[in-house]
């Protein structure tokens, strides 16, 4: 989410929440992480994919990169190099208009690298989506659940700026006296810790929808007049995420193999008297901002996400904005769950997430609507990916 945003709701994501912002760079390649150059012909489904569907995502990332100073590092893993390393490739990407021309650009400028850990290229891939809520600018009997903006006293600290061994770690809180102390947790906020301060961005009609919005990190709110307001991640209260799906599994309420976002929703609907207590186990609380007429939720790369073509990754291992060839599968939204649908497509690494941890780990952004929710909710599928880097950078990555 992040992802940011990157916020996901596959099975693993119900056990460890993705947070929309993970602000760190890896100083060296992790032990066991391997990059093996392969020809494009080795990518599963390379010939069959309509690459033009990835052009909107590539345009956004290349526009972003070309706006960087040439000596600026590409965010994420250092194998992404600097903006100058991407200039020629991105200029040609922006001239591509269809499958054939993009295919030519990619094959001319990029080298696919199989990503593996100790020779094992298989990892786990999940999904996330943009949720729909119903809300109002004013509190009413129906619209009584607040979505809060970022409190001005909230202080976010990137610990890596103080000590190199703390890179990737973040805390948040508020200053009282001369000390930084923990901020209010979800239970305290639900009990009114922020009341009376005019921090409510919007009011929605369903506490469960609001809770899952905190997981997704962004969504659309349908107003009483039928208009849609897009809102996205602004900040987080600093408390660690606790996945309520884990509690349901440990208490025997839901079998591990049946765990999904839909299963949690069903349990909450069937147990309204226990709903608040369960949700409050997750002390993490998200603050939102109004995205106005944006053409999509923003990922950690700072660009709007593209449905089915934006991928959340672990930026310790992959650079943001990089093309990625993904080969996995996803649940069939209209058929038997036991019959997954093959998914072999060109993606762009444009988001991150707290649960997106690992060398071979990704989260597919499925977009907005019912079908996106049906796919993303239970998605927890094995797969592989290949990182596409400009050839000079690929040579360096292989040689490390």
Automatic annotation (TrEMBL):
<dbReference type="InterPro" id="IPR010611">
    <property type="entry name" value="3D_dom"/>
</dbReference>
<dbReference type="Pfam" id="PF06725">
    <property type="entry name" value="3D"/>
</dbReference>
<keyword id="KW-0456">Lyase</keyword>
<dbReference type="Pfam" id="PF03562">
    <property type="entry name" value="MltA"/>
</dbReference>
<dbReference type="InterPro" id="IPR036908">
    <property type="entry name" value="RlpA-like_sf"/>
</dbReference>
<dbReference type="InterPro" id="IPR005300">
    <property type="entry name" value="MltA_B"/>
</dbReference>
<protein>
    <recommendedName>
        <fullName>peptidoglycan lytic exotransglycosylase</fullName>
        <ecNumber>4.2.2.n1</ecNumber>
    </recommendedName>
</protein>
<dbReference type="InterPro" id="IPR026044">
    <property type="entry name" value="MltA"/>
</dbReference>
<feature type="domain" description="Lytic transglycosylase MltA">
    <location>
        <begin position="132"/>
        <end position="289"/>
    </location>
</feature>
<keyword id="KW-0961">Cell wall biogenesis/degradation</keyword>
